[in-house]
């Protein structure tokens, strides 16, 4: 038996080089890498967005390993709101690459998730099937993980990351986006990557809020410690993907609240001023109609008739101007001056009674107060 030869020597006539070609037969069926593919879109996503990529493998080579992807049946809409206007299939599957693209324009107020089946086949008709879930979420339902790795390095380990996180939290983990980390001052740090993802409850297929996700991560931080150290996870926080439309809505809401508060305060101030002025004028009116010694028991003098001759015009209590605070009694103030004038008349030999030396200008009573008394009718006691 000849000994085995490690290399072929063309100069050796005892050796012959033989080429053997093995033809591959299509004896293997394609197989999806996952039984269930999950992903997510937001209400701000654009038409034609590449949502995800479904992949399958086939051990056959050449033409026997050429695969085609298709959508199996129609898309089911579950827990949906405001999705009735979608007249065509919400998603399209590229038959060559397996990329699932968005085929409608999401709008605010839309909710729910989409469920459909896909299948893959080879040239011989061998096939496999899988299921796809695509969730419609809001921008503020995303969580951001900051990793000290480049986006290419994170992309190579993203499947391991999502599977590990899903096993610990018990939720469906969907990766939404990779981005180079941006610092607070606006500079780009290429050594860090922002990984955006969202979590879905396995029981009811509802998207978990960020507050719930962060609480679950904090609760299982001991089990996630190995993952975070292995992938250099620096921080976990709420995603800051706030669009300009949301900012404008918040600004409009703040302006509306401010205007309402301002108008409310203005109304309260106006009512307070009106009540204050009303109370003030009421006090002034009461002071103007009140008498000095108390109010009358019946009509308070509002129905008084005009002055009748031979009657006392000051018959109402408090109506005498002598005792009213607003009346200036000048004849009391000039009492000393009056006495001095009387003294001068008496010193000259004149009798004040004969000459009627009383200054009538100092008397508070005038002729209109005594229309039936005249100086000629007054008897002179000295004429007798």
UniProtKB/TrEMBL annotation:
Instruction: Tell me which Gene Ontology terms the entry assigns under biological process.
Output: cell migration; homophilic cell adhesion via plasma membrane adhesion molecules
Q: Which residues cross the membrane?
A: 252-275
Compartment(s) where it occurs, according to its Swiss-Prot or TrEMBL record: Membrane
Protein name as it appears in the record: Cadherin-23
The organism named in the record is Halocaridina rubra (Hawaiian red shrimp)
Skewed-composition ranges (Polar residues): 374-384
Instruction: Provide GO CC annotations from the record.
Output: catenin complex
Q: Where is this region: Disordered?
A: 350-384
Q: What is the lineage of its organism?
A: Eukaryota, Metazoa, Ecdysozoa, Arthropoda, Crustacea
Q: Which GO terms describe its molecular function?
A: beta-catenin binding; cadherin binding; calcium ion binding
Segments forming domain Cadherin: 33-153
Q: Does the keyword Glycosyltransferase apply?
A: no
Q: InterPro entries recorded for this chain?
A: Cadherin, Cadherin-like_dom, Cadherin-like_sf, Cadherin_CS
* Key words, A-Z: Calcium, Membrane, Repeat, Transmembrane, Transmembrane helix
């Amino acid at each position: 038996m000849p000994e085995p030869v490690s290399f072929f020597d063309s100069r050796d006539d005892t050796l012959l080089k033989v080429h053997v070609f093995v033809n591959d037969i299509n004896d293997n069926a394609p197989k999806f890498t996952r039984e269930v593919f999950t992903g997510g879109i937001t209400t701000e996503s654009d038409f034609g967005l590449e949502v995800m990529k479904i992949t399958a493998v086939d051990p056959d080579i050449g033409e026997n390993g050429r695969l085609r992807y298709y959508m199996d049946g129609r898309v089911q809409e579950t827990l949906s709101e405001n999705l009735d206007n979608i007249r065509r299939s919400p998603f399209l599957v590229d038959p060559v690459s397996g990329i699932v693209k968005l085929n409608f324009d999401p709008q605010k107020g839309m909710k729910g998730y989409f469920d459909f089946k896909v299948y893959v086949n080879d040239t011989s008709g061998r096939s496999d099937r899988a299921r796809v879930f695509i969730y419609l979420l809001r921008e503020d339902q995303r969580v951001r993980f900051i990793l000290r790795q480049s986006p290419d390095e994170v992309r190579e380990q993203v499947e391991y990351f999502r599977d590990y996180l899903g096993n610990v939290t018990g939720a469906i983990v969907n990766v939404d986006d990779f981005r180079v980390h941006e610092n607070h001052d606006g500079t780009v740090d290429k050594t860090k990557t922002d990984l955006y993802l969202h979590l879905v409850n396995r029981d009811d297929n509802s998207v978990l809020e960020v507050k719930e996700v962060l609480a679950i991560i904090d609760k299982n931080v001991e089990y996630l410690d190995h993952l975070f150290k292995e992938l250099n996870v620096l921080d976990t926080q709420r995603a800051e993907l706030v669009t300009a439309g949301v900012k404008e809505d918040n600004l409009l809401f703040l302006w509306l609240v401010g205007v309402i508060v301002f108008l409310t305060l203005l109304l309260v101030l106006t009512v307070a001023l009106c009540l204050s002025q009303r109370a003030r004028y009421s006090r002034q009116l009461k002071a103007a109609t009140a008498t000095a010694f108390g109010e009358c028991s019946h009509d308070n003098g509002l129905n008084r008739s005009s002055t009748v001759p031979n009657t006392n015009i000051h018959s109402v209590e408090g109506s005498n101007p002598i005792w009213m605070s607003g009346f200036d009694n000048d004849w009391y103030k000039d009492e000393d001056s009056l006495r001095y004038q009387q003294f001068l008349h008496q010193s000259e030999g004149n009798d004040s009674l004969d000459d009627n030396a009383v200054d009538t200008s100092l008397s508070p009573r005038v002729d209109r107060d005594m229309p039936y008394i005249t100086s000629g009718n007054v008897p002179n006691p000295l004429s007798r």
